[in-house]
Design a protein that fits this description.
The complex is a heterotrimer.
Chain A lengths: L2 H16 L12 H26 L8 H26 L5 H9 L17 H18 L8 H29 L3 H21 L10 H6 L7 H18 L10 E3 L4 E3 L5 H11 L3 H14 L1 H22 L1
Antiparallel strand pairs in A: 1-2
Helix pairs in contact in A: 2-3, 2-11, 3-6, 5-6, 5-7, 5-9
Chain B lengths: L7 E7 L6 E8 L3 H12 L7 E6 L11 H5 L23
Antiparallel strand pairs in B: 1-2, 1-3
Chain C lengths: L2 H23 L7 H29 L5 H6 L10 H4 L5 H22 L5 H29 L3 H15 L10 H8 L10 H14 L22 H15 L6
Helix pairs in contact in C: 1-2, 1-8, 2-6, 5-6, 5-7, 5-9, 6-7
The chains are: A mainly alpha, B alpha+beta, C mainly alpha.
Amino acid sequence: MSEEQIKNLEKQFEERIARDEKIEPKDWMPEKYRQTHIRQMSQHAHSEIIGMLPEGNWITRAPSLRRKVALLAKVQDEAGHGLYLYSATETLGISREELYEQLHTGKAKYSSIFNYPTLTWADMGAIGWLVDGAAIINQVPLCNTSYGPYSRAMIRVCKEESFHQRQGYEIMMKLANGTPEQKEMAQDALNRWWWPSLMMLGPTDDKSVHTAQSMKWKLKRKTNDELRQQFIDQTVPQADLIGLTIPDPDLKWNEERQSYDFGEINWDEFWQVVKGHGPMNKERMRARINAWECGEWVRDAAMAHAEKKQQRKQKQAV
Amino acid sequence: MSTKNWPLWEIFVRSKNGLEHRHFGSLHAADAEMALENARDVYTRRNEGVSIWVVESKHITASNPENNGELFEPAQDKVYRHPTFYDLPDEVKHM
Amino acid sequence: MKENLYNYILGIADNSLILGQRMGELCGHGPSLETDIACTNISLDLFGQVRSYFQYAAKVSGDGRTEDDIAMLRKERDYKNVLLVEQPNTNFAYTIARQFLFDAYHLAFLSELQKSTDLTLSAIANKCIKEVSYHERFSSDWVKRLGDGTEESCVKMQEAIDDLWTYTDELFHQTEADKAMVAEGVGVDVTKLKEDYYKRVHRLLEEATLKVPQLKWFQKGGKEGIHTEHLGYLLSDLQYMQRAYPNMEW
């Protein structure tokens, strides 16, 4: 194809997206669109899968049977969401195994927040409330994103995820209304998860490299800073309601902006964790690689068995 | 890394009797039985289905969007296939 | 309190509780995403059953204890599960072998429990049997895949079956509570399930190209609270919160 032809196709492509048309797997798309989507969608899928680990850490120790089944179901949903997203990514011509390979070799990123440890039961509450809360803010606009399979996966994810944040907030509420020891546990979890949750919404707009292009392709509807503000504005009253204190001395209602002003985020910490120096990066990766490698003989056996079965069937037919 | 990975399957679920099977997504499985079981666990956890079809993705033949012009556009102006093409006086009932 | 009925319910429920806990350990660590989700489903089914049983046990005990008190605040010697279900997830072959060897029993057991004169128990059995039929299908399919898969998987599967075989006979052992409950028409006479169980298991092992272990001596004791060393560690996880923070609501 000549350069001019490609330019022409690109123009038509951008116009389709601007008209809110969806792009489907077999449609022509610019290579950059494909690559950007593989990157973002797989990063999203990896985050779901890695995200199972910090919470999975408390399944065997959940304090009641009711909490245990809720947590199990939630972590299982994350596996499901990872699966939907990997499947959607595969429509772009890359296999799940290749995507795992990228994750295991450190080529692909995942949400940095899962590199923090879950130390107490209250962390299950804090993750559900804050981390899922921040994730929902990110995800809801993606239900309308331009790539059809991604948008459909996100619609399913958002529908299922609606119980996750409620589950987390309910845990926090119960703790905050419990004994002093329980309330302290809740406050401690909020203290540790608040700032990483704010970082989760991404670098500030002036440092964010992908925003403009992502806006055009509807991978993003609002900027990181707008999303962060939205998250803070909706979360602060929720903390107030259960008598917990947001660990930010600079947090203050701004009457003029009708929004909260908030303190400086430690971006140095953010970038260090992204680069692999968080408290749990190595452990998380080890757990994933271990599951994959220990599962290899199992997956191979299933394939070998399927082939044998197929051969027997063919023999019978003859 | 394994040489043979579990192939991809497309999953179709009937939400309730009376409705058609609808494409729900895909997943990996070694064989059709496993694909059915996995589909049950992955796509009907919330009681979403009463029947499941699984088809190995490689068996699906899809039309090429480059041919959309010749495939689908000729149907656009065949308005006589739609009831609104036919003008009838308002007095005619039940039609 | 109806001591025998209470103990009888615990004997059933503890199997689901401990096996559910074992399956729950795998969440996030399965050999494939799809299998991970399937194992969690089994765990969720089992915990659902546990809650029905313990809610009933709490009612029977009538001393104000809750399902969680019963599940999490007993001493190790008071857990009545069979030794089989507490065995660890050494590898996926052990997970599957444990599951199948239990499912084949569980299915037969529930099908009899449906006929119990105790209407609560028969209603629970009636609900659970559909879940367990699926578990049995899942685990027996996997025994076949691993047994009749690759050379490596066949060795691993055989090893798991050989190791766990010693815990199968206990499934058909009767406690005093069992006998009393059978006499009342409430309980299931597990001794009558034994023959069909081994027939079913033999048939599947054969189909999976696995050998039936020739064992004459079996381990038992779980039903009387004499467990393997594995249970203590499992309980320290299960009970951690209730022990560290007593008398609180979650």
